PhoD-like phosphatase metallophosphatase domain-containing protein
Amino acid sequence: MLHLGDYIYEYRSGEYPAAKYVVRKHEPEHEIVTLADYRDRHGRYKTDPDLQALHHALPMVAI
């Protein structure tokens, strides 16, 4: 799968302009700006069962 969108969002939880609802609570909740913030947010995304199933089913390139 070739993924052309954003993999993670930097916005504070619930602040993304186009979001009508929050799929998962962001960790950390504040806007991410440091490497540690990015690692925490990325790790949180990786706990999503649907994303895990996608990565299990298909090779994925995020560009």
Q: What stands out?
A: The chain has one domain: 2-62. Helices lie at 35-45, 49-57. Residues 12 and 31 are 4 Å apart (CA to CA). The first strand starts at residue 2 and ends at 3.
